[in-house]
Amino acid sequence: MSALHAITLNAIDGSELPLAQFKGKPLLIVNVASQCGLTPQYATLQQLHAQYADKGLVILGVPCNQFAGQEPGTEGEIAKFCETTYQVGFPLTSKVEVNGPGRHGLYTYLAGEGAPFPGDITWNFEKFLVNGQGDVVARFSPRTTPDDPAVIEAIEKLLG
Fold this sequence. Notes:
Radius of gyration: 14 Å
CATH superfamily: Glutaredoxin
Largest sheet: 4 strands, mixed
Order of helices and strands: EEEHEHHEEH
Helix content: 25-40%
Distance between the termini: 22 Å
Strand content: 15-25%
Number of domains: 1
């Protein structure tokens, strides 16, 4: 089992969300926020989910309040916002820290020292693409939209 698949987060509803359940499936992991200028990317993430979930892609939204306090709500408020505003059908985690001393282990794996694409998360909606074996294969900036040709090409390459 890869180090990624050994990580467990809490889902937005408080239940456990072991990443081992996604072994063998590509993951697009995105730190998200409800009150950001990039928040409309939720709509495109949901479109990708609708388009590629049956082919194996899992989109994982990871709420974070570390960037200008743009995710101040409770998990329940975040879930309701995502459901009612963007009809989000992909998994969301509880809020985590993506940078600093409280950085969640997921983000240490994705962007910490020794990671393929190391460095602090720069803003909300930074994206990491992970293959089914748990290897990080791409990192996309927050301003790169989920339907950018480079993102689509990388996803389709993993889906075969």
